[in-house]
Design goal:
With about 260 residues, this protein is an alpha/beta fold. It has nine helices and ten strands. Bound molecules: adenosine-5'-triphosphate (ATP). Belongs to the ABC transporter superfamily.
């Protein structure tokens, strides 16, 4: 799992607290039209943690995620990734450290072959030759797509394209893997296979999702963002079992789903 080993030790590997992978401090943001989407968000994620970012439509989840690699910024507050502030002068390194997998893999795949798509980021960062080939193979191996390297991405199924999209990000050896609705449009087998892949990675994960069972399965910790503020931060199972909290933030479990019946991530 060297491919995505974070610079700091994962939480389970050390008795001393690991250095934070992500520190968001007092982030507030209004869009140019004046709409205030974030009102002062504080969030610390330790290296190696898997955290679900939950919340109703319009809560500010995407707005927050876009602050993590500097796509949005310029409001109040600070974001640091493994100690490096998200600022204009650091953006190239920040975008290597924060890999965002968008909901639609077709937003991320645009080259004639899977291999070229996965090579694109590391090549743009200057990697060449055997080093580049090795990086691509490593990333495709991590998502179980090595046999598809020479296929055009548009000939793959949706689930396969999502895995390749994950590989394009892993090829950069990110500090944090941010996933936007990773389980959407996946059939149950693909959903489970992606969960197995995510569990196997030695990387900090922040997962935006409306799929609460998936959050429970994969993320020991969840954060609820609601109306631009963090409304709750705790053990995923505890939050999902808190009916008043869930109701207050328009979060609903699937009919008949009992969070107590799922083994803790
Ligand atoms: N470009 C924009 N200009 C103005 N307001 C915006 C813009 N993008 C988003 N917003 C507003 O900011 C708020 C937060 O939106 P955001 O997309 O971050 O929510 P979200 O939690 O990701 O929602 P969803 O679960 O629906 O994806 C919403 O009220 C939205 O209408």
């Amino acid at each position: 799992m060297d491919a995505v080993t974070a610079p700091s030790a994962p939480a389970s590997a050390s008795s001393t607290p690991p250095a934070p992978s992500l520190e968001v401090s007092g982030v507030a943001y209004a869009y140019p039209d004046g709409h205030q989407a974030l009102f002062g968000v504080d969030l610390t994620v330790a290296a190696g943690e898997r955290v679900a970012l939950l919340g109703p439509n319009g809560a500010g989840k995407t707005t927050l995620v876009l602050h993590l690699n500097g796509i949005l910024g310029g409001g109040v507050g600070t974001v640091t990734v493994a100690g490096l502030p998200v600022e204009k002068r650091n953006l190239a390194e920040i975008r290597r450290r924060v890999g965002i997998v968008f909901q639609d893999p077709d937003d991320q795949l645009f080259m004639p072959t899977v291999r070229e798509d996965v090579a694109f980021g590391p090549a743009a960062a200057g990697l060449r030759g055997a080093g580049l080939e090795e990086r691509v193979r490593e990333a495709l191996d991590l998502v179980g797509m090595a046999d598809f390297a020479d296929r055009p991405p548009h000939h793959l199924s949706f689930g396969q394209r999502r895995r390749v999209a994950v590989a394009t990000v892993l090829a950069m050896r990110p500090e944090i893997l941010v996933l936007d609705e990773p389980s959407s449009n996946l059939d149950p087998a693909s959903r489970r296979e992606l969960a197995d892949i995510l569990r196997s990675l030695d990387v900090t994960v922040l997962m935006v999702t409306h799929d609460l069972p998936y959050a429970l399965e994969l993320c020991p910790r969840s954060v609820i963002l609601s109306e631009g503020v963090i409304a709750a931060d705790g053990r995923t199972r505890d939050l999902l079992c808190d009916e008043a909290l869930m109701g207050a933030h328009r979060l609903e479990l699937p009919f008949g789903f009992d969070p107590r019946s799922v083994p803790v991530a």
